[in-house]
């Protein structure tokens, strides 16, 4: 009988701790949104809601899950990172996603950015060139119920021609060049966001807009740091 | 405490010279091979920490000798060969351990909070152990046979002098892990010669067999997943060649359908970028071997800002400096330049580029030359004073995405004021010089190169910046074109057409394009720092920009050749704020990392030096002057050595030759000096005079060496090598004397101090190795030499006063 009681208590503790861990992650997520995202000027309601909803700790390696909500990028293997939460929020807000939108992501990585976008828009297509990462992210997204996200292993250079044109394109992996096919697959009036710089270091985001067939680019303020000011400013 | 009375009297210690020499070859050679392996697995910063670990091992051995030396000294005949044997075993095992899953770590993940700190400590320990045990053996021999200190020290220095070149030679033929194992085997032979063979033959045979097996199965290098090569190896359908061994770094090439070459490509470009074969040196991207150009197809670089120079002129001759895998050579060939000279120091990469069809030596149109750009410019100016080029091309500056200031302590003599002056002299009347820079944030590389070009024009006088400097800017890169002749209407129109076709913003030339708001048609920047900085430069306000800007963007010189060092004194308050915002480590971590290393080493060293003092308190009286003497000698030598290597990089053309050559000459000269010091009487006036003479000589070198280098830079390479050796030998010879003379001096009172001397000298060296770089990067190359002279002057005074006090 005593053994049964001990077993029962152990089961209760186990479930209790699981439940507490869930609460704890929710609290961390809430704090992340308040302190790292809202405080830095992200105001789009849909973005904030999505950032609060996506369970980021599922997208990082188990040994790092306790640090999932910290204000930093984290390694996910193969020389890739899951971006700092604020960068994900900034990139989401800047492409102005709407529920009816179709969004292409280049560089699925952990799958976290795709999950955030999937909270807002109807269709998300994401391409990952590193096969193990493509498999892992597809598995996590499926497990978490994001059935409006399609993951493909392949070279993001060509985009996803079958599903083009896209309202927005989110490039999460910095590249030395912007693939011409992506510009072609961007809808007229569409927006593409690309990080210029390494995710580990100083990073600027660049907005590419297609208007009347013309392509214009704009380097936005760097997303990791406070604005850079000169001595005489 | 060790006392003369406790001496073993073992004559075997006096005959240890050859064994010490052979062992030193293995130990120092292994260090060079490890640096090469770690530069491949991680980054060169981590590899250079091996130097500090080596010096720490040497210093700590002195402490151990001082603390427990009498026990070891009584057993020196066994302890010396055993320590040598264990050290060589640790040498052979080090890479297997460091590359194992247990110890393997990723420096990038360490910065990202991904953990692995204890693995880093374990890795330090792995590399510390061979140096500690090896130095323990050497120090024990010195202590046991102080009367032979000069000769033994000479064997030690001579062996060490050979170790570096031996490793470099081997690296040309076999991979770095194999070199490390081979040299560990050599060190083991020294241990056997020292007595290990007589002690236990079975153990020796087993280890010989193990090392033979290790040679057949050398450790495999486990690279950081953030290295360029690791990323490329993740690409689908890849084809890899390599590693191709080379003293300049091991080379890999990777081809994959997903690896394309299109740096900062125009958004107007609608074709498909070429798929090349990416070249990596030590795991870092080095260039791309481009496929043959299809007939009538545009060359990819014409759709980048780098096409500006060819858009406005049709050069007949081009000099490509730092040609790498030959992208700019292919560009010039595609533009039908009749005579192309490509300068590339890495022989393996040069060979790859030539084999790739970028060599047209037969018809004289393309010629590849080894060595650095500066060496070529000096040599050519001296031999062919009338040779001129239509176009000089420099490689792109900065790294895509920035490098977080990691290269702040790397010298670059190709971007100094003196280098640009030489390039200017080599341009014909209608010539152009073009250099590109990746746009960085905050702007540093881009503004410094712009300031350097503007400075050149201002120094020349009568060269209005807007008529002689054009800038094309895309979303990621800026290309500067410096023109010797003022811009005429025809070229201006061609530049405008190029920028319109490619969607690049243009700065310079016409009045409309001097205002930065007019030069943001295609790519706008919310941050105004770069464009306002350029506007100030065009307006002739270079000096006020340099003074007000939070980073140091002033042109660099041969005396301070650190192009990538941007931190500025007077701005520490601002940097402190960035640190508090967690931003600074991502901006400029090179110098802070160096500072951190210096503080760590200093903190570890101080207690390790002070520890034996507790045991030696009874004899602490009169200790201050020997301490000052050995610390000054250690500091002075290392300050001189580090700076000399920096100076000789310019003179001999490559950091590896400079490092190996300077270290070898210094050690060789010191070995001879050490040997001869045995003939000098151990009298304080002699010791003081030698140190004083070195101090005076160093002052003379500080003043005359830059002039000597400038005057003889144009001579053939072999002559420069001979002159370089000859000019260093006198001071190296003298520098070999203070340590053995000092050892014999303190030996007269107590032998414990010999071990102390060994330790203090080592610790002073380890602290100064990083300290010298800190001073050089912030104050220029001459200041550390003045400090080295001061250190030897202090040593002289310490020895002189000691006599008077005594």
SSE order and pairing:
The complex is a heterodimer of chains A (233) and B (806).
Chain A: H1 2-37, H2 45-53, E1 74-77, E2 80-82, H3 85-94, E3 102-106, H4 112-118, E4 123-128, H5 131-143, E5 149-153, E6 166-171, H6 180-184, E7 186-196, E8 204-211, E9 214-219
Parallel strand pairs in A: 3-4, 3-6, 4-5, 6-7
Antiparallel strand pairs in A: 1-2, 7-8, 8-9
Helix pairs in contact in A: 1-2, 2-3, 2-4
Chain B: H1 11-14, H2 17-41, H3 44-74, H4 76-98, H5 107-111, H6 117-144, H7 149-171, H8 176-199, H9 201-216, H10 228-233, E1 239-244, E2 251-260, E3 275-281, E4 284-289, H11 308-312, E5 317-321, H12 327-334, E6 339-343, H13 347-358, E7 366-369, H14 373-383, E8 389-393, H15 417-425, E9 427-438, H16 445-460, H17 465-468, E10 469-473, E11 477-483, H18 489-502, E12 505-507, E13 523-525, H19 529-538, H20 542-548, H21 572-580, H22 590-615, H23 624-652, H24 655-677, H25 684-712, H26 717-735, H27 738-747, H28 752-779, H29 782-805
Parallel strand pairs in B: 5-6, 5-8, 6-7, 8-9
Antiparallel strand pairs in B: 1-2, 2-3, 3-4, 9-11, 10-11, 10-12
Helix pairs in contact in B: 2-3, 2-4, 2-6, 2-7, 2-8, 3-6, 3-22, 3-28, 4-6, 4-8, 6-7, 6-28, 7-24, 8-9, 16-19, 22-28, 23-24, 23-25, 23-26, 23-27, 23-28, 23-29, 24-26, 25-26, 25-27, 25-29, 27-28
What class would the helix/strand composition of chain A place it in?
alpha/beta
The CATH class assignment of one domain in chain B is Alpha Beta
Helix content of chain A: 25-40%
Can you name the CATH architecture of one domain in chain B?
3-Layer(aba) Sandwich
The succession of helices and strands of chain A, N to C, reads HHEEHEHEHEEHEEE
Most strands sheet of chain A:
7 strands, mixed
**CATH homolog superfamily of one domain in chain B:** Vaccinia Virus protein VP39
Helix percentage of chain B = 55-70%
Strand order of the largest sheet of chain B: 7-6-5-8-9-11-10-12
Task: State the total count of DSSP E strands of chain B.
Answer: 13
Total separate domains of chain A: 1
Principal-axis shape of chain A: globular
CATH topology of chain A: Rossmann fold
Shape of chain B: globular
With helices defined by DSSP (H or I, 4 residues minimum), what is the helix count of chain B?
A: 29
Enter the CATH topology name of one domain in chain B.
Rossmann fold
| Low-confidence region ranges of chain B | 1-9, 401-406
